């Protein structure tokens, strides 16, 4: 009995490896986001004029600020 050898697996090239020495990308120039408390609400603000929605969760307001800084 004769069996054919398995066909070679073809894979698409992946993204280039990330160098461990490269610093992570920082916020865009002119952006510095902070959180501000107003009563029982917290909101994120940036020096560029952006303002996030008022949240009861401080953690969610910080996440809004981080998402804003990560957007180009």
Structural overview:
The longest helix is centred in the C-terminal third of the chain and has 13 residues, at about 60-70. β1 (about 35-40) and β2 form a beta hairpin. About 20% of the residues lie in helices and about 15% in strands. The protein starts with about 30 loop residues before the first strand and ends with a helix. With about 70 residues, it is of the alpha+beta class.
Quick summary:
This protein is of the alpha+beta class. It contains one helix and two strands.
Number of H/I helices: 1
Give the ordered list of helices and strands.
Answer: EEH
Helical/strand content category: alpha+beta
Strand order of the largest sheet: 1-2
Approximate strand percentage: 15-25%
- The stretches of 5 or more residues where confidence is low (pLDDT under 50) are none
Into which percent range does the helicity of residues fall? 10-25%
| Terminus-to-terminus distance | 61 Å
What is the residue-mean pLDDT, rounded to a whole number?
80
Number of strands: 2
Which word captures the global form? elongated
Largest sheet: 2 strands, antiparallel
List keywords for this structure.
elongated; alpha+beta; 17% strand; 1 helix; 72 residues; two-stranded antiparallel sheet; 2 strands
